[in-house]
Specification:
The protein is of the alpha/beta class. The chain is built from four helices and seven strands; from the N terminus they run αβββαβαβββα. The protein has helices at residues 3-56, 105-113, 127-138, 175-184, and strands at residues 63-64, 72-73, 89-90, 117-121, 146-150, 158-162, 165-169. The strands form two sheets. It has a five-stranded mixed beta sheet. It is rod-shaped.
Length: 236
């Protein structure tokens, strides 16, 4: 082999190696670029989901008010809000449960004082939406501190209340319902955390079944607000 042919062969091999290196660099750049793009897209999707979820569960629309606790009365109370979320209330509290008829405000407010969340809805809310509301309300939080009942002349399809806090909703599956229950059920503003929302002295009737109880006379006993060891740890 002549020197010229050997030189030509070396140059050809060098060009082939150089071309192979360029291909490898392009492949690496393409791989890293694609991987980087995927990471950027994933981060963007996660960020979008978190922002969207934060907006969906935002409680910025919650209305709050301050009320003194322990104001027990035996008469009907004229409340400022519909439904009420604090203030004077009957000596007897409402058994935390799901009711298909309206209950007395005065009993419900006493339950709020004990840490309950009261989910109210317009009586003409379609049955399928009432069922969805029930499923949503009972899927989170402490069931022994949950009230649910229809409420005449409600200012929104659904209103959820705790002691000193209230939120209006239109959709029974709105994530804000669960967020409200998690934050305010037996929350830091509860006047009597750990007080029972049931027991033998709790009212289990609806407003059409029994009037407000009369003031005791003589040796009649007033209800005992027994404290439970601790509120249920079933918050999710």
């Amino acid at each position: 082999m002549t020197k010229e042919k050997a030189q030509a062969r070396r140059e050809h091999l060098q060009k082939m190696r150089a071309e192979q290196r360029r291909k490898e660099r392009r492949a690496a750049l393409l791989m890293w670029g694609t991987g980087g793009l995927i990471i950027v897209v994933l981060v963007g999707l996660v960020g979008f989901y978190l922002v969207k979820r934060a907006q969906e569960t935002s409680l910025d629309a919650v209305v709050s008010a301050k009320y003194d606790a322990g104001q027990h009365v035996w008469t009907k109370v004229d409340y400022k809000e519909t439904p009420p979320m604090g203030g004077e209330h009957n000596n007897y509290w409402q058994q935390c449960d799901i009711y298909d008829k309206p209950i007395h405000n005065e009993h419900a407010v006493h339950s709020l004082e004990h840490g309950a969340v009261w989910v109210t809805y317009q009586p003409d809310l379609p049955k399928d939406k009432v069922e969805k509301l029930r499923e949503a309300a009972t899927s989170v939080g402490q069931q022994d501190y949950l009230l649910m009942s229809p409420y005449p002349d409600l200012p929104a399809p659904i209103v959820v209340s705790s002691w000193g806090h209230q939120l209006k909703l239109t959709d029974p599956e709105d994530p804000k319902l669960g967020a409200f229950i998690k934050r305010y059920q037996n929350g830091p503003d509860t006047p009597e955390p750990g007080a029972t929302c049931g027991g033998p002295d709790a009212i289990t009737t609806t407003a059409d079944q029994a009037p407000l109880p009369p003031e005791p006379t003589g040796d009649q006993q007033t209800p005992m607000e027994n404290l439970q060891p601790s509120p249920s740890e079933s918050k999710q």
